[in-house]
Write a structure and sequence with these properties.
The chain has seven helices and eight strands, in the order E-H-H-E-H-H-E-H-E-E-E-E-E-H-H. With 203 residues, it is an alpha/beta fold.
Length: 203
């Protein structure tokens, strides 16, 4: 069953705005957005192209063992990797640069099944589809064995379907900007190892 999202703002324009973190007006991002969507008139097809580019071309920091922490969208693009939150920042920036309203959603997940009492937040996006008149979540974390996220109109296919029996939570909030707890963590810890040890566990 698709989660009913609670929008922070009723104004779609708020989900298009640039900011210090979602710096879509940076020339590298706006140029890439235009290049990737050139000749594609269908908005859902534009979303798919941008989503799959970030999902597949930008590595998850943990998957490649890079010690650096990225936060702003332009940083993620420049370094070529990011944690799930940072990849969501870049995807939002690319989508907003193409006029597609995009927000931020979060899940609380078990950090590791070997540590069932330790939780961590996971970041993803939601885009507004005019054709459906509703928001659709999508997760650009990056696929790997056991993780297969896709952009689907009619049903969600996220990286991590939650397991309520394990205490996992789908937060229904749809934020205009990344949650302050996330930004603080990404900007406080300068190495991936330090960030992993201090990942926020709740909003």
């Amino acid at each position: 069953m698709t989660l009913s999202l609670i929008s922070e703002s009723n104004h779609l324009a708020d989900y298009l705005a640039p900011s210090a973190v979602i710096d879509w007006q940076h020339s590298s991002i706006s140029t890439l957005g235009k290049s990737l969507t050139q000749g594609i008139s269908s908005v859902p097809d534009q979303i798919r192209v941008l989503y799959e580019w970030v999902r597949d071309r930008i590595s998850h920091t943990c998957d490649i063992g890079d010690p650096r922490v990225t936060c702003t969208a332009s940083e993620v693009l420049h370094q070529g990797h990011g944690f799930c939150f940072a990849k969501a920042h870049l995807l939002a920036a690319l989508l907003r640069s193409c006029g597609i309203p995009t927000g931020f959603c979060y899940q609380r997940l078990v950090f590791d099944d070997a540590q069932p009492d330790r939780f961590t937040l996971h970041g993803l996006n939601a885009v507004y589809l005019v054709e459906l008149r509703r928001w659709v979540r999508l997760d650009a974390r990056g696929n790997k064995p056991g993780v297969q996220a896709e952009f689907c109109w009619h049903r969600e296919q996220l990286a991590f379907p939650i397991r309520p029996r394990c205490g996992e939570v789908d937060y229904p909030n749809l934020y205009v900007e990344p949650h302050p707890n996330i930004i603080t963590a990404l900007q406080t810890y300068s190495t991936a190892q330090a960030l992993i040890a201090h990942l926020p566990a709740t909003l």
